[in-house]
Input
Amino acid sequence: MVGVGEVCGWSCLVWEVDSRSVVNGKKKNISGDRAGGRLEDSGVTRRRRRGLLGWYRKHFRALPWRVEPGRGRAPGSRKQHPNPYHVLVSEAMLQQTQVATVIDYFKRFVDEFSTIQALADADEQGVLRAWQGLGYYRRARNLHAAARRIVEDHAGQIPDSVDALLSLPGVGRYTAGAITSIAYGQRVPVVDGNVARVLARWHGISEAVDTTPVIKKLWQLAGHHVPKSRPGDFNQAVMELGALVCRPGVPDCGACPVARDCHAHQTGQASALPVLTKKAAPKKVTHHTLAVRHGRRYLFVQRPEKGLWSKMWELPTAERLAGRPGGDQLCAWADRQLGLRIDSPRRVSGFTHQTTHRRIDFVIWTATAKSSMNTKGEWRALGRLNDLPLAKPQTRAIAAIQADEITD
DNA sequence: AAGACGGGGTA
DNA sequence: TACCCAGTCTT
Output
C-alpha cells in the first residue's frame, strides 16, 4: 500500500489541494510526503465509521450470502463471517449486476453447486446454464475455472490472501478485497461503483472518477477509511449506503448518517457528483436468426470461445447480412455457413435487443431443412432445451418460433 | 487508455 | 433515452 500522509486531520481543503494535483494527469505524489499520517486518528474518520456502522446495523438488507452485521462477536457464538465460497459466488454474480437481480440466481446456484468441489466437478455447460439470463457469461466460465484451480492448487480452500485471489480468473482487485475483508476479516479496502460514488461525495472529488489517477486515489482513500475492526461490515456498509441512500442522481442526504461529514452535501454538490466520462452510444446492427426445422426438431449451434455470448447456444444466426436480405440470401447463407439445404425461409417476427455496446434488431426466420445432415450443432425439439445455455434474445426467438408453430 | 462484455432497474 | 449497476480482461 502506498503511503498516504496528507490525509491526517482530514479536511475538505486537503482534498481540494490533492485533486488539483491529480487533474493534470501526472502521477505525482498525490498523497503528499508526510509519512505516518493515519486517517484513523482523524475525528472525522472515526465519526464516519461510527455513523456508518450504526446505520448499517439498522438498515442492512438480509441477503442470502450475508451474515447479520456484528453478529457472533460475543463469546461462544459462531459464524462471524459468511461462507467464503458463498462470498466468492455472490461477488462474481454481483459484478456489474444489481443485488435484486442476483438474489434468486445465487440461491439456485449454491443449491445446485453447494461447495467449491461440486462446482469444480460440474461441466462448463451446466454452469453456464445456471448463469443463463444473468449476462456477462464470461464470469460463469471464470468462476468455474477458478473453482477447479482452488481445488487443484489450494486443497479446496478459498484463498485468504489478496495475491492468491488475484491470480484466479475473474477475480480482480474489488473481488479480492471483498473476499478477504468479508469472509476473512482482513483490513482490505474495496472500491466498486457505490464506494466510488460515496467517496467522491464525501471528499468533493470533482474530477472524473473513472480515470486511472483518480481510481488510484479512491483506493487509497478507501484503504484509510476501512477499520481494523469489522472491515467486512464497514465495506458492506459503504456499499449499502451507496445503494440505498447515497444513490446516483439525487441522493437522500436527509437519511444519511454521515451527511455532516460529507463535503458534497455541505457544499450543495451531492447531486452533481460523481462525474463520469461519457460512453460511446451502442452500435446499431441487425442479426438474422434462422430456425431450421427438420421434423419436430430445430438446429442449435454453439457460439465461439470469444466475443458476445461466447459458448452459449443459439439458433443459427447471421450477423452480417447486408441490407434487407430476402429468402434467397438466407438460403445461400445456410448453404455456406451451415452446409445445409433449406426450403423457402419465411420471416416470422422480430424484436430489438439492447446490450451495452449494441442495439440489435433481431429478425427471426423459419425454414425447413431438406435433410438433417450436419456435422456441427444439435437437433432439438423446442421442449427439450433444458441443458442448453441460451442468452436472452435466443429465448425470445424460441418463444416466437413456438408461437408460430401453434398458429401454424 | 479505451473497449468489450449482458441484462435489467430507474428516472 | 440515458445512466448505472457490489468489475474484469483484452487490446
Observations:
- Residues 90-99, 101-102, 136, 138-139, 142, 169-175, 178, 190, 192-195, 235-236, 239-240, 242-243, 248-249, 276, 279, 281 of chain A lie near DNA strand C (CB under 10 Å from a C1').
- Chain A has two domains: 13-272, 283-407.
